[in-house]
Design a protein that fits this description.
91 residues, mainly alpha, 0% strand, elongated
Length: 91
């Protein structure tokens, strides 16, 4: 159960990094590195959370364990889609 709880904490941190990325001052002056840090940290946190959730799901197969897999996977895929849309809008 500790793997599942840990993965859900990583999901919370990934959501916070995603929100900070959306609010980052990347277009003001020369502060683009802030957005880059939040961009990379969102992917890393959701990926690590997915890894811990997978370990928890293999250990205990119940709905609570599946929730960690689903949330971390959803964060990763939705942020990937968001990144593709931003890339297409600015290219």
């Amino acid at each position: 159960m500790r793997f599942t709880n840990r993965s859900l904490w990583f999901a919370v941190l990934a959501c916070m990094a995603m929100g900070f990325f959306a609010k980052s001052p990347s277009f003001i002056g020369n502060q683009r590195w802030i957005a880059g840090i939040f961009y990379v940290s969102t992917y890393l946190l959701s990926g690590i959370g997915f890894y811990w959730a997978y370990k928890g799901f293999r250990e205990i197969r119940n709905l609570w364990s599946f929730l960690g897999l689903f949330i971390n996977g959803f964060i990763f895929v939705s942020f990937l889609a968001f990144s593709v849309l931003i890339y297409r809008a600015f290219s």
